[in-house]
Amino acid sequence: MKRSIIKYFLSSVLVAASFACHKLEVPITTELTTDTYPQDSASFITASGPVYVVLRGNYGGVEWFMQQSLSTDESIMPARGGNWYDGAQNLQMHYHTWTRDNGYVNGNWYWLSTIIGVSNQTLDILGKTETDGATKSRHLAEIKMVRALAYYWMMDNYGRVPLDTVAGDYTPHENVDRSVTFNWLEREITAALPYLSRATGSSTYGRANKFMAFSLLAKLYLNAEYYTGTQRYNDCITACDSVINSNMYSLATMGSYLDMFKYNNGPSTPEFIFAVPYDPNFSNSWPFRSVNNYSRYDVPRSMGNVATNAGFNYFSIPFVPGAPRSTIPSFYAYFYDENDVRNGQWLHGKQYKKDGTPITITTTYAGYDAITYAGNTSPYTYQLDITPDVVLRQSTALFDCGNDEVAWNMGYRNIKFYPDPTSANRNQNNDVPVFRYADILMMKAEAILRGGSATNGASALSLVNQIRAQRTTSTGWTNITLDSVYNERSREFAMECWHRNDMIRFGKFENAWGFKTDNDINHRVFPIPTNAIKLNPNLTQNPGY
Question: What Pfam families does the annotation carry (predicted)?
Fold first, then answer.
Protein backbone atom coordinates (compact mmCIF):
# COMPACT_ATOMS: atom_id res chain seq x y z
CA MET A 1 0.00 0.00 0.00
CA LYS A 2 2.81 2.42 0.95
CA ARG A 3 4.58 1.87 -2.38
CA SER A 4 1.39 2.72 -4.25
CA ILE A 5 0.88 5.88 -2.23
CA ILE A 6 4.47 6.99 -2.76
CA LYS A 7 4.19 6.35 -6.51
CA TYR A 8 1.06 8.45 -6.80
CA PHE A 9 2.54 11.23 -4.70
CA LEU A 10 5.63 11.41 -6.91
CA SER A 11 3.53 11.30 -10.05
CA SER A 12 1.26 14.11 -8.93
CA VAL A 13 4.13 16.39 -7.96
CA LEU A 14 5.97 15.61 -11.20
CA VAL A 15 2.95 16.69 -13.24
CA ALA A 16 2.51 19.79 -11.08
CA ALA A 17 6.17 20.74 -11.37
CA SER A 18 6.04 20.72 -15.15
CA PHE A 19 3.73 23.75 -14.96
CA ALA A 20 5.49 25.48 -12.11
CA CYS A 21 7.81 27.70 -14.13
CA HIS A 22 6.11 31.04 -13.74
CA LYS A 23 2.79 30.18 -12.13
CA LEU A 24 3.81 28.62 -8.86
CA GLU A 25 0.60 26.82 -8.03
CA VAL A 26 -1.40 24.27 -10.04
CA PRO A 27 -4.19 21.88 -9.04
CA ILE A 28 -2.99 18.58 -7.61
CA THR A 29 -4.74 15.23 -7.68
CA THR A 30 -3.38 12.34 -5.66
CA GLU A 31 -4.36 9.15 -3.83
CA LEU A 32 -2.47 10.41 -0.80
CA THR A 33 -4.99 10.74 2.02
CA THR A 34 -4.52 12.80 5.15
CA ASP A 35 -5.64 10.08 7.55
CA THR A 36 -3.40 7.26 6.29
CA TYR A 37 -0.07 8.81 5.27
CA PRO A 38 2.49 9.77 6.44
CA GLN A 39 2.55 8.39 9.96
CA ASP A 40 6.23 8.42 10.96
CA SER A 41 9.52 10.16 10.24
CA ALA A 42 10.57 7.75 7.49
CA SER A 43 7.34 8.24 5.56
CA PHE A 44 7.56 12.02 5.97
CA ILE A 45 11.05 11.90 4.47
CA THR A 46 9.75 9.86 1.54
CA ALA A 47 6.83 12.19 0.98
CA SER A 48 9.03 15.29 1.08
CA GLY A 49 11.53 13.73 -1.35
CA PRO A 50 10.35 15.61 -4.47
CA VAL A 51 11.27 18.92 -2.84
CA TYR A 52 14.88 17.81 -2.46
CA VAL A 53 14.98 16.12 -5.84
CA VAL A 54 13.95 19.27 -7.69
CA LEU A 55 16.49 21.26 -5.62
CA ARG A 56 19.36 19.33 -7.16
CA GLY A 57 18.13 19.94 -10.72
CA ASN A 58 20.15 23.04 -11.71
CA TYR A 59 22.74 23.18 -8.95
CA GLY A 60 25.58 20.83 -9.92
CA GLY A 61 27.73 22.80 -12.31
CA VAL A 62 25.03 23.52 -14.88
CA GLU A 63 22.54 26.40 -15.35
CA TRP A 64 22.72 27.79 -11.82
CA PHE A 65 26.49 27.65 -11.81
CA MET A 66 26.61 29.29 -15.24
CA GLN A 67 24.52 32.25 -14.11
CA GLN A 68 26.46 32.74 -10.87
CA SER A 69 29.95 32.14 -12.26
CA LEU A 70 30.01 33.19 -15.92
CA SER A 71 28.64 36.59 -14.88
CA THR A 72 31.81 37.11 -12.79
CA ASP A 73 35.56 37.01 -13.36
CA GLU A 74 35.63 33.45 -11.99
CA SER A 75 34.67 31.65 -15.21
CA ILE A 76 34.40 32.27 -18.92
CA MET A 77 32.90 30.05 -21.60
CA PRO A 78 33.74 31.29 -25.10
CA ALA A 79 32.78 29.52 -28.30
CA ARG A 80 35.32 27.21 -29.92
CA GLY A 81 34.72 27.09 -33.64
CA GLY A 82 31.00 27.74 -33.15
CA ASN A 83 30.70 25.10 -30.44
CA TRP A 84 29.20 26.42 -27.20
CA TYR A 85 28.04 29.71 -28.69
CA ASP A 86 24.57 28.63 -27.59
CA GLY A 87 22.59 31.58 -28.90
CA ALA A 88 25.05 34.05 -27.34
CA GLN A 89 23.96 33.19 -23.78
CA ASN A 90 27.57 32.61 -22.67
CA LEU A 91 28.78 35.77 -24.38
CA GLN A 92 25.97 37.72 -22.68
CA MET A 93 26.92 36.38 -19.25
CA HIS A 94 30.51 37.57 -19.67
CA TYR A 95 29.75 40.98 -21.17
CA HIS A 96 26.74 41.63 -18.89
CA THR A 97 24.52 42.07 -21.94
CA TRP A 98 22.01 39.38 -20.98
CA THR A 99 18.45 39.87 -22.07
CA ARG A 100 15.13 38.72 -20.65
CA ASP A 101 15.32 35.77 -23.09
CA ASN A 102 18.77 34.52 -22.07
CA GLY A 103 18.66 30.75 -21.52
CA TYR A 104 20.20 30.87 -18.04
CA VAL A 105 17.99 33.78 -16.95
CA ASN A 106 14.92 31.79 -18.03
CA GLY A 107 16.11 28.40 -16.85
CA ASN A 108 16.92 29.49 -13.32
CA TRP A 109 13.68 31.43 -12.87
CA TYR A 110 11.92 28.23 -13.97
CA TRP A 111 13.99 26.07 -11.62
CA LEU A 112 13.59 28.28 -8.55
CA SER A 113 9.87 28.71 -9.23
CA THR A 114 9.56 24.94 -9.49
CA ILE A 115 11.25 24.43 -6.11
CA ILE A 116 8.84 26.94 -4.59
CA GLY A 117 5.79 25.44 -6.32
CA VAL A 118 6.61 21.86 -5.31
CA SER A 119 7.38 23.02 -1.76
CA ASN A 120 4.04 24.83 -1.53
CA GLN A 121 2.13 21.77 -2.70
CA THR A 122 4.04 19.42 -0.42
CA LEU A 123 3.53 21.68 2.59
CA ASP A 124 -0.19 21.85 1.82
CA ILE A 125 -0.61 18.10 1.55
CA LEU A 126 1.56 17.14 4.51
CA GLY A 127 0.16 19.96 6.63
CA LYS A 128 -3.31 18.41 6.36
CA THR A 129 -2.28 14.97 7.55
CA GLU A 130 -3.77 13.90 10.85
CA THR A 131 -0.34 12.96 12.16
CA ASP A 132 0.70 15.65 14.58
CA GLY A 133 3.46 16.49 16.99
CA ALA A 134 7.21 16.97 16.74
CA THR A 135 7.77 14.69 13.73
CA LYS A 136 5.32 16.53 11.54
CA SER A 137 6.50 19.96 12.70
CA ARG A 138 10.13 19.09 12.03
CA HIS A 139 9.56 17.88 8.48
CA LEU A 140 7.34 20.80 7.58
CA ALA A 141 10.05 23.13 8.89
CA GLU A 142 12.64 21.37 6.72
CA ILE A 143 10.57 21.89 3.58
CA LYS A 144 10.06 25.53 4.51
CA MET A 145 13.83 25.94 4.66
CA VAL A 146 14.26 24.57 1.13
CA ARG A 147 11.58 26.98 -0.04
CA ALA A 148 13.31 29.82 1.85
CA LEU A 149 16.61 28.96 0.17
CA ALA A 150 14.94 29.12 -3.26
CA TYR A 151 13.34 32.44 -2.38
CA TYR A 152 16.68 33.79 -1.11
CA TRP A 153 18.36 32.85 -4.39
CA MET A 154 15.47 34.29 -6.37
CA MET A 155 15.59 37.60 -4.48
CA ASP A 156 19.37 37.75 -4.82
CA ASN A 157 19.29 37.14 -8.58
CA TYR A 158 16.06 38.78 -9.72
CA GLY A 159 15.52 41.49 -7.12
CA ARG A 160 11.79 42.08 -6.91
CA VAL A 161 9.98 38.72 -7.05
CA PRO A 162 6.41 37.61 -6.32
CA LEU A 163 5.76 36.07 -2.91
CA ASP A 164 3.52 33.09 -3.56
CA THR A 165 3.45 30.69 -0.62
CA VAL A 166 -0.10 29.29 -0.46
CA ALA A 167 -1.05 26.20 -2.42
CA GLY A 168 -4.23 26.67 -4.41
CA ASP A 169 -3.89 30.44 -4.70
CA TYR A 170 -3.99 31.08 -8.45
CA THR A 171 -4.05 34.85 -8.22
CA PRO A 172 -1.29 36.46 -10.33
CA HIS A 173 0.91 38.12 -7.73
CA GLU A 174 2.87 41.33 -8.17
CA ASN A 175 6.58 41.27 -7.52
CA VAL A 176 7.44 42.98 -4.25
CA ASP A 177 10.38 45.03 -3.03
CA ARG A 178 13.38 43.14 -1.76
CA SER A 179 12.74 44.45 1.75
CA VAL A 180 9.38 42.63 1.75
CA THR A 181 10.96 39.35 0.69
CA PHE A 182 13.80 39.92 3.18
CA ASN A 183 11.36 40.40 6.06
CA TRP A 184 9.34 37.35 5.01
CA LEU A 185 12.52 35.25 4.87
CA GLU A 186 13.61 36.42 8.31
CA ARG A 187 10.21 35.54 9.80
CA GLU A 188 10.06 32.21 7.96
CA ILE A 189 13.50 31.08 9.09
CA THR A 190 13.21 32.20 12.69
CA ALA A 191 9.76 30.61 12.99
CA ALA A 192 11.08 27.30 11.69
CA LEU A 193 14.23 27.20 13.83
CA PRO A 194 12.66 25.74 17.01
CA TYR A 195 11.34 22.75 15.08
CA LEU A 196 14.46 21.84 13.08
CA SER A 197 16.73 19.02 14.13
CA ARG A 198 20.14 19.63 15.68
CA ALA A 199 21.32 16.30 14.33
CA THR A 200 24.16 16.23 11.82
CA GLY A 201 25.85 13.49 9.82
CA SER A 202 24.06 10.78 7.88
CA SER A 203 20.74 11.15 9.72
CA THR A 204 20.09 14.61 8.27
CA TYR A 205 22.61 14.80 5.41
CA GLY A 206 21.19 16.57 2.37
CA ARG A 207 18.21 17.81 4.38
CA ALA A 208 17.73 21.10 6.17
CA ASN A 209 18.66 21.05 9.85
CA LYS A 210 18.88 23.83 12.43
CA PHE A 211 22.37 24.84 11.34
CA MET A 212 21.42 25.10 7.69
CA ALA A 213 18.78 27.60 8.82
CA PHE A 214 21.31 29.60 10.85
CA SER A 215 23.65 29.61 7.83
CA LEU A 216 20.92 30.94 5.55
CA LEU A 217 20.03 33.54 8.15
CA ALA A 218 23.69 34.61 8.39
CA LYS A 219 23.90 34.99 4.61
CA LEU A 220 20.68 37.03 4.64
CA TYR A 221 21.97 39.36 7.37
CA LEU A 222 25.44 39.74 5.83
CA ASN A 223 23.83 41.10 2.65
CA ALA A 224 21.09 43.05 4.44
CA GLU A 225 22.60 46.47 3.76
CA TYR A 226 22.59 45.75 0.04
CA TYR A 227 19.09 44.23 0.05
CA THR A 228 17.33 46.70 2.35
CA GLY A 229 19.67 49.61 3.08
CA THR A 230 19.92 48.63 6.77
CA GLN A 231 22.99 46.97 8.31
CA ARG A 232 22.43 43.72 10.24
CA TYR A 233 26.03 42.70 10.94
CA ASN A 234 25.52 41.95 14.63
CA ASP A 235 22.61 39.69 13.69
CA CYS A 236 24.88 37.96 11.18
CA ILE A 237 27.46 37.36 13.92
CA THR A 238 24.79 35.96 16.24
CA ALA A 239 23.64 33.51 13.55
CA CYS A 240 27.25 32.48 12.87
CA ASP A 241 27.87 31.97 16.58
CA SER A 242 24.87 29.64 16.73
CA VAL A 243 26.73 27.35 14.34
CA ILE A 244 30.20 27.86 15.83
CA ASN A 245 29.11 27.33 19.44
CA SER A 246 27.30 24.11 18.55
CA ASN A 247 30.68 22.39 18.04
CA MET A 248 28.98 20.26 15.39
CA TYR A 249 31.29 21.24 12.53
CA SER A 250 35.00 21.71 11.95
CA LEU A 251 37.35 22.81 9.21
CA ALA A 252 38.75 20.25 6.83
CA THR A 253 42.44 19.78 7.48
CA MET A 254 45.07 20.97 5.04
CA GLY A 255 45.50 17.44 3.76
CA SER A 256 41.79 16.86 3.22
CA TYR A 257 40.65 20.18 1.73
CA LEU A 258 40.60 18.91 -1.86
CA ASP A 259 39.15 15.55 -0.78
CA MET A 260 36.14 17.45 0.54
CA PHE A 261 34.89 17.93 -3.02
CA LYS A 262 35.66 14.51 -4.51
CA TYR A 263 33.20 11.95 -5.82
CA ASN A 264 33.31 9.95 -2.56
CA ASN A 265 32.40 12.89 -0.32
CA GLY A 266 29.28 12.75 1.81
CA PRO A 267 27.99 12.83 5.41
CA SER A 268 31.46 12.36 6.91
CA THR A 269 32.69 15.65 5.43
CA PRO A 270 33.17 17.78 8.58
CA GLU A 271 32.60 21.17 6.92
CA PHE A 272 29.36 20.45 5.07
CA ILE A 273 26.46 22.13 6.85
CA PHE A 274 24.14 21.71 3.89
CA ALA A 275 25.00 19.97 0.63
CA VAL A 276 23.13 18.81 -2.44
CA PRO A 277 23.79 15.08 -2.93
CA TYR A 278 24.35 13.70 -6.42
CA ASP A 279 24.20 10.20 -7.86
CA PRO A 280 24.63 9.58 -11.60
CA ASN A 281 22.17 6.70 -11.33
CA PHE A 282 19.30 9.03 -10.40
CA SER A 283 16.69 10.19 -12.90
CA ASN A 284 17.68 12.86 -15.36
CA SER A 285 14.18 13.89 -16.40
CA TRP A 286 13.56 17.58 -15.80
CA PRO A 287 12.89 18.81 -13.19
CA PHE A 288 13.47 15.58 -11.24
CA ARG A 289 17.02 15.07 -12.41
CA SER A 290 20.47 14.54 -10.98
CA VAL A 291 23.04 16.50 -12.95
CA ASN A 292 26.53 17.19 -11.66
CA ASN A 293 28.40 18.07 -14.85
CA TYR A 294 31.48 19.95 -13.66
CA SER A 295 33.89 17.60 -15.47
CA ARG A 296 31.94 17.83 -18.70
CA TYR A 297 32.64 21.55 -18.90
CA ASP A 298 36.01 21.91 -17.17
CA VAL A 299 38.27 18.96 -18.05
CA PRO A 300 40.47 19.46 -21.15
CA ARG A 301 39.32 17.20 -23.98
CA SER A 302 42.66 15.42 -24.22
CA MET A 303 42.55 14.38 -20.55
CA GLY A 304 39.31 12.41 -20.91
CA ASN A 305 38.23 9.45 -22.99
CA VAL A 306 39.29 10.70 -26.39
CA ALA A 307 40.37 8.55 -29.32
CA THR A 308 42.80 11.12 -30.70
CA ASN A 309 44.88 10.73 -27.56
CA ALA A 310 45.83 7.13 -28.39
CA GLY A 311 43.55 5.78 -25.67
CA PHE A 312 45.18 7.81 -22.89
CA ASN A 313 42.63 8.87 -20.28
CA TYR A 314 44.17 10.82 -17.40
CA PHE A 315 41.00 10.99 -15.29
CA SER A 316 39.58 7.56 -16.31
CA ILE A 317 36.23 9.11 -17.18
CA PRO A 318 33.99 7.37 -19.73
CA PHE A 319 33.25 10.36 -21.97
CA VAL A 320 34.89 13.05 -24.07
CA PRO A 321 34.68 16.31 -22.09
CA GLY A 322 33.14 19.30 -23.81
CA ALA A 323 35.89 21.43 -22.24
CA PRO A 324 34.53 24.92 -22.97
CA ARG A 325 34.83 26.49 -19.50
CA SER A 326 37.92 28.04 -17.95
CA THR A 327 39.00 30.97 -15.83
CA ILE A 328 40.82 34.17 -16.74
CA PRO A 329 44.24 35.34 -15.48
CA SER A 330 42.86 38.03 -13.16
CA PHE A 331 40.92 35.47 -11.12
CA TYR A 332 43.72 32.91 -11.08
CA ALA A 333 45.97 35.66 -9.70
CA TYR A 334 44.29 35.17 -6.31
CA PHE A 335 46.11 31.84 -6.08
CA TYR A 336 49.59 33.31 -5.77
CA ASP A 337 50.72 31.47 -2.62
CA GLU A 338 52.76 28.44 -3.70
CA ASN A 339 52.23 26.86 -0.25
CA ASP A 340 48.43 26.91 -0.51
CA VAL A 341 46.71 23.51 -0.97
CA ARG A 342 43.85 25.25 -2.77
CA ASN A 343 46.16 25.66 -5.78
CA GLY A 344 45.62 21.96 -6.39
CA GLN A 345 42.14 22.59 -7.78
CA TRP A 346 43.63 24.05 -10.99
CA LEU A 347 45.05 22.55 -14.17
CA HIS A 348 47.55 24.91 -15.77
CA GLY A 349 50.73 24.84 -17.83
CA LYS A 350 52.35 21.76 -19.29
CA GLN A 351 50.62 18.55 -18.26
CA TYR A 352 52.20 15.27 -17.24
CA LYS A 353 51.00 11.75 -16.67
CA LYS A 354 50.95 10.44 -13.13
CA ASP A 355 54.30 8.74 -13.73
CA GLY A 356 55.85 12.08 -14.63
CA THR A 357 56.07 11.62 -18.39
CA PRO A 358 54.62 14.37 -20.61
CA ILE A 359 51.08 14.11 -21.93
CA THR A 360 51.54 14.32 -25.68
CA ILE A 361 48.89 14.82 -28.33
CA THR A 362 49.28 13.80 -31.97
CA THR A 363 47.22 15.71 -34.51
CA THR A 364 48.09 17.68 -37.66
CA TYR A 365 49.67 21.08 -37.99
CA ALA A 366 46.28 22.51 -38.96
CA GLY A 367 44.61 20.56 -36.15
CA TYR A 368 47.02 22.16 -33.71
CA ASP A 369 46.84 25.72 -35.04
CA ALA A 370 44.38 26.20 -37.89
CA ILE A 371 45.18 29.88 -38.23
CA THR A 372 48.96 29.58 -38.59
CA TYR A 373 48.99 26.25 -40.44
CA ALA A 374 45.74 26.33 -42.44
CA GLY A 375 45.53 23.34 -44.78
CA ASN A 376 48.67 21.62 -43.47
CA THR A 377 47.69 18.01 -42.78
CA SER A 378 51.16 16.76 -41.85
CA PRO A 379 51.33 15.00 -38.46
CA TYR A 380 52.18 17.14 -35.46
CA THR A 381 52.85 16.03 -31.87
CA TYR A 382 52.94 18.44 -28.93
CA GLN A 383 52.90 18.33 -25.14
CA LEU A 384 49.57 19.36 -23.68
CA ASP A 385 49.96 22.92 -22.44
CA ILE A 386 47.01 24.69 -20.78
CA THR A 387 47.66 28.36 -21.37
CA PRO A 388 46.39 31.26 -19.20
CA ASP A 389 44.97 33.68 -21.76
CA VAL A 390 41.66 33.36 -23.57
CA VAL A 391 42.01 34.95 -27.00
CA LEU A 392 39.06 35.45 -29.34
CA ARG A 393 41.28 34.74 -32.34
CA GLN A 394 38.54 33.43 -34.65
CA SER A 395 35.80 36.01 -34.03
CA THR A 396 35.39 38.68 -31.38
CA ALA A 397 31.78 39.26 -32.41
CA LEU A 398 30.96 35.58 -31.99
CA PHE A 399 33.03 35.21 -28.79
CA ASP A 400 35.06 32.52 -30.59
CA CYS A 401 38.58 31.28 -29.87
CA GLY A 402 38.69 28.84 -32.81
CA ASN A 403 38.39 25.11 -33.28
CA ASP A 404 41.91 23.75 -32.92
CA GLU A 405 44.15 22.49 -30.13
CA VAL A 406 45.47 25.97 -29.38
CA ALA A 407 41.91 27.19 -28.83
CA TRP A 408 40.69 24.20 -26.84
CA ASN A 409 43.60 24.47 -24.40
CA MET A 410 43.13 28.17 -23.64
CA GLY A 411 42.32 29.12 -20.07
CA TYR A 412 43.30 27.43 -16.81
CA ARG A 413 40.81 24.73 -15.75
CA ASN A 414 39.26 24.09 -12.38
CA ILE A 415 38.87 20.51 -11.13
CA LYS A 416 37.74 21.26 -7.58
CA PHE A 417 34.84 18.83 -8.06
CA TYR A 418 37.27 16.14 -9.15
CA PRO A 419 36.26 14.03 -12.17
CA ASP A 420 34.43 10.87 -11.13
CA PRO A 421 35.95 7.66 -12.56
CA THR A 422 33.29 5.52 -10.85
CA SER A 423 30.44 6.87 -12.97
CA ALA A 424 29.39 5.14 -16.19
CA ASN A 425 28.20 8.41 -17.71
CA ARG A 426 29.20 12.06 -17.70
CA ASN A 427 27.41 12.80 -14.42
CA GLN A 428 29.30 12.71 -11.15
CA ASN A 429 28.82 11.44 -7.60
CA ASN A 430 30.37 14.57 -6.05
CA ASP A 431 27.97 16.18 -3.60
CA VAL A 432 28.04 19.97 -3.87
CA PRO A 433 28.01 22.14 -0.74
CA VAL A 434 25.69 25.09 -0.31
CA PHE A 435 26.91 26.08 3.17
CA ARG A 436 30.28 25.14 4.66
CA TYR A 437 31.75 25.81 8.10
CA ALA A 438 34.53 27.90 6.52
CA ASP A 439 31.85 30.23 5.20
CA ILE A 440 30.46 30.68 8.70
CA LEU A 441 33.89 31.78 9.95
CA MET A 442 34.43 34.04 6.94
CA MET A 443 30.99 35.65 7.25
CA LYS A 444 31.60 36.38 10.92
CA ALA A 445 35.02 37.88 10.16
CA GLU A 446 33.58 40.10 7.44
CA ALA A 447 30.67 41.20 9.61
CA ILE A 448 33.11 42.26 12.34
CA LEU A 449 35.19 44.24 9.85
CA ARG A 450 32.04 45.95 8.59
CA GLY A 451 31.17 47.20 12.07
CA GLY A 452 29.74 44.25 13.97
CA SER A 453 30.84 43.47 17.52
CA ALA A 454 33.43 40.75 18.05
CA THR A 455 32.28 37.87 20.28
CA ASN A 456 33.78 34.95 22.16
CA GLY A 457 37.26 36.46 21.98
CA ALA A 458 37.45 36.00 18.20
CA SER A 459 38.61 38.84 15.96
CA ALA A 460 38.25 39.07 12.20
CA LEU A 461 41.98 38.36 11.93
CA SER A 462 41.90 35.28 14.18
CA LEU A 463 38.89 33.84 12.36
CA VAL A 464 40.50 34.10 8.92
CA ASN A 465 43.84 32.84 10.23
CA GLN A 466 41.97 29.86 11.65
CA ILE A 467 40.97 28.95 8.10
CA ARG A 468 44.33 29.77 6.56
CA ALA A 469 46.09 27.53 9.09
CA GLN A 470 44.34 24.61 7.36
CA ARG A 471 44.98 25.85 3.82
CA THR A 472 48.61 27.02 3.63
CA THR A 473 51.94 26.55 5.37
CA SER A 474 52.73 30.22 4.83
CA THR A 475 52.91 32.49 7.87
CA GLY A 476 49.60 33.68 9.26
CA TRP A 477 48.35 37.17 8.55
CA THR A 478 49.25 40.05 10.88
CA ASN A 479 46.59 42.44 9.59
CA ILE A 480 43.32 42.18 7.72
CA THR A 481 41.18 44.38 5.48
CA LEU A 482 37.92 43.94 3.61
CA ASP A 483 39.90 43.53 0.39
CA SER A 484 41.99 40.74 1.89
CA VAL A 485 38.78 39.03 3.06
CA TYR A 486 37.38 39.29 -0.44
CA ASN A 487 40.56 37.77 -1.88
CA GLU A 488 40.44 34.95 0.64
CA ARG A 489 36.79 34.24 -0.17
CA SER A 490 37.76 34.05 -3.85
CA ARG A 491 40.33 31.38 -3.01
CA GLU A 492 38.26 29.46 -0.51
CA PHE A 493 34.93 29.32 -2.32
CA ALA A 494 35.99 29.24 -5.96
CA MET A 495 33.39 27.49 -8.12
CA GLU A 496 30.88 27.16 -5.24
CA CYS A 497 28.28 29.61 -6.61
CA TRP A 498 28.88 32.45 -4.12
CA HIS A 499 31.32 34.63 -6.09
CA ARG A 500 28.67 36.80 -7.77
CA ASN A 501 27.07 37.42 -4.38
CA ASP A 502 30.48 38.38 -3.00
CA MET A 503 31.41 40.65 -5.90
CA ILE A 504 28.20 42.65 -5.53
CA ARG A 505 28.54 43.00 -1.75
CA PHE A 506 32.17 44.14 -2.05
CA GLY A 507 31.35 46.61 -4.84
CA LYS A 508 33.39 44.82 -7.50
CA PHE A 509 30.69 43.60 -9.88
CA GLU A 510 30.91 46.73 -12.03
CA ASN A 511 34.68 46.41 -12.49
CA ALA A 512 36.19 45.49 -15.86
CA TRP A 513 37.60 41.98 -16.36
CA GLY A 514 38.36 39.80 -19.34
CA PHE A 515 36.53 41.37 -22.27
CA LYS A 516 33.81 42.90 -20.10
CA THR A 517 33.66 46.66 -19.51
CA ASP A 518 30.00 47.10 -18.50
CA ASN A 519 29.51 49.02 -15.24
CA ASP A 520 25.72 49.36 -15.14
CA ILE A 521 24.50 48.83 -11.56
CA ASN A 522 21.14 47.67 -12.94
CA HIS A 523 22.92 44.48 -13.92
CA ARG A 524 23.34 43.47 -10.30
CA VAL A 525 20.01 41.74 -10.87
CA PHE A 526 18.84 39.81 -13.89
CA PRO A 527 15.71 40.67 -15.89
CA ILE A 528 12.38 39.01 -15.27
CA PRO A 529 12.06 36.52 -18.17
CA THR A 530 9.71 37.34 -21.04
CA ASN A 531 7.70 34.15 -20.51
CA ALA A 532 7.22 34.92 -16.83
CA ILE A 533 5.64 38.27 -17.63
CA LYS A 534 3.47 36.70 -20.34
CA LEU A 535 2.12 34.21 -17.81
CA ASN A 536 1.79 36.82 -15.08
CA PRO A 537 1.17 40.34 -16.46
CA ASN A 538 1.20 41.71 -12.90
CA LEU A 539 4.99 41.36 -12.81
CA THR A 540 6.98 44.56 -13.29
CA GLN A 541 10.26 44.37 -15.22
CA ASN A 542 13.47 45.33 -13.41
CA PRO A 543 15.01 48.75 -14.22
CA GLY A 544 17.30 48.83 -17.24
CA TYR A 545 15.60 45.94 -19.04
Answer: SusD-like_3, SusD_RagB
Indicate whether 328 pLDDT > 80.
yes
Asked if residues 334 and 487 have their Cβ atoms less than 8 Å apart, the reply is: yes
74 alpha-carbon distance from chain centroid: 13
- Residue 153: pLDDT band by 50, 70, 90 thresholds? very high
Q: What are phi and psi of 498, to 5 degrees?
A: -115, 0
- Alpha-carbon span 541 to 545, nearest angstrom: 7
DSSP string, 266-318: STT-TTEEEEE---TTS-EETTEE--B-HHHHHS-GGGSS-GGGTT--TT--S
On the question of pLDDT at 103 being above 80, the answer is yes
Per-residue pLDDT at 215: 98
pLDDT at residue 312, rounded to an integer: 75
Q: Is the distance from CB of 61 to CB of 497 less than 8 angstroms?
A: no
The Cα diameter of the chain in Å comes to: 76
Which amino acid belongs to residue 418? Y
Rounded to 10 deg, the angle between the 178-192 and 210-222 helix axes is 150
Nearest to 419 by CA among 313, 307, 539: 313
Alpha helices in 208-353 (DSSP H): 210-222, 224-228, 233-244, 294-298, 329-332
Residue 458 has pLDDT above 70, yes or no: yes
Burial (CB < 10 A; 0-12, 13-18, 19+), residue 283, is exposed
DSSP designation for 527: P
Alpha helix stretches (DSSP H) within 202-318: 210-222, 224-228, 233-244, 294-298
Q: Distance (Å, rounded) from C-alpha 21 to C-alpha 50?
A: 16
Give the domains, in start order, of the chain with CATH numbers. 2-288+430-454+482-535 (1.25.40.390), 295-414 (no CATH)
Give the SS3 label for residue 363. Answer: strand
Q: Structure pTM? A: 0.92
Q: What is the DSSP string of 66-84?
A: HHHHTTSSS-B--BBTTBT
Is residue 526's pLDDT more than 90?
A: yes
